[in-house]
């Protein structure tokens, strides 16, 4: 009885996304916007403060390395860098993550045959390849009643043999590399690989550490990159839906 009463009082908790965007908190940091015209001559304050060398000499930001830590925005006396509330960050190629100005070439959908195969039902095996549990937690939340990933035909499964692809978090540590390769081999072809978070894309805060690895790229072919540390669940969902041609 209590179950029915709870259901009546709580009503439908699932977000109306993508028809309505959820309200993001003020502190949310999405796509950075760079205005090079504000930069002082020879100023390198943002570059010097960046913990992952994500900012290039031409004022580019490599979103694959960026931790969205906001240090560069705080260091810049001219206000040349600010973080917008735009949650859309997922792309199809590593090169597309190097942001010049304010525009990002967002992920294009899979080809028609792949959409026919995966568009209505996509099963993913999540592999934490040395992540800190931040990306894993924000991926996990997509299966809750609030996000209800299953309504888009996307589900996480326990066995790679039942999966259409891998969603990988973490920098691919030395301890996890073989396990990741074996898990990938167990997924039947054709298969997808989604790299979620700065670690999985570039090594993130562990870049160039000999035991941590520099992400998925040196190990497996990647179909979708979702930057962030960790990416917001909305950013991950946006990327998956773009890949499937559902946005
Ligand atoms: S927000 Fe990104 S680009 Fe800026 S300092 Fe942090 S890691 Fe570097
Ligand atoms: S990208 Fe950030 S949140 Fe994700 S696993 Fe790495 S350190 Fe943790």
Q: Round the mean pLDDT to the nearest integer and report it.
A: 95
Low-confidence stretches: none
Strand order of the largest sheet: 6-5-7-8-9
Distance separating the two termini = 40 Å
The biggest beta sheet, please? 5 strands, parallel
Helix content: 25-40%
Bound molecules: iron/sulfur cluster
Percentage of β-strand residues: 5-15%
Per CATH, the class of the domain at 112-243 reads: Alpha Beta
Q: Radius of gyration, rounded?
A: 19 Å
Q: Determine the CATH topology of the domain at 112-243.
A: Rossmann fold
Count of distinct strands = 9
What does this structure look like?
The strands form three sheets. Strands 6-5-7-8-9 form a five-stranded parallel sheet. The mean pLDDT is 95. The protein is globular and about 65 Å long. The longest helix is centred in the C-terminal third of the chain and has 13 residues, at 174-186. With 247 residues, it is α/β, with parallel strands linked by helices. The chain has a domain at 112-243: Rossmann fold (3-Layer(aba) Sandwich), CATH 3.40.50. The protein contains eight helices and nine strands. The structure holds iron/sulfur cluster (SF4) (2 copies). Residues 49-52, 54-55, 61, 66-72 line the site of one iron/sulfur cluster.
Please describe the structure with a list of short key phrases separated by commas or semicolons.
247 residues, alpha/beta, Rossmann fold, 5-stranded parallel β-sheet, two-stranded antiparallel ribbon, 8 helices, 9 strands, globular, binds iron/sulfur cluster
